[in-house]
Design brief:
It is a single chain. A six-stranded mixed sheet has the order 2-3-1-4-5-6, with helices on both faces. Helix content is about 30%, strand content about 25%. The protein has a single domain, classed as P-loop containing nucleotide triphosphate hydrolases (Rossmann fold, 3-Layer(aba) Sandwich).
Amino acid sequence: MAEKNKYFKVIVVGERGIGMTSFVRRYAEGLFPEYISKVYGLDYRLKVTKEKGVTFKIQVWDKMCSQEFRYVYEGYTSTADVVCLLYDITSMKSFLELEFWLKQVSNVQRKLIIGLKCDLEERREVSRSKGESFAKNRGLDFIEVSAKEGTNMDKVLNPHNICISNLHTARKDCILAEKEKEANINHCRIM
């Protein structure tokens, strides 16, 4: 029997300097880099996992979010299965900017709110309940992680996690949308 492959594109957005690149590297490569060179424009990492005869190939795209790259273009998000909206729990400013980022990725159906740096509890500015409430009020999943310590990183976009279930649903939605496209109704593009 041939092995099944599932491909997913995940986009990570948030304010500059909150640890997005560290998050991407820890998730995809399982390491926390002590030094990270700046990301200019776009970068991605590939995470490959096998579960029950299915190979999941997850592209995680990191976007430089300095002022000149602050806006997310629809062409960039049109092929995304999931967008991870990140904020730093030690920065209320990064949390407040989630509204801006939600507008930037409004064309992507599946979104996940992720609070970074949960290992820095003593410096927390955004309570867990505030993050959970923000996500719940928008019908989104929520998790707090620490890229440095690896806390909850195994629960982010894990094949056993509801987020991957959402990815499967998104894939089915796109197949249905392709059928609708043939009938000149609507369409959805995937990788």
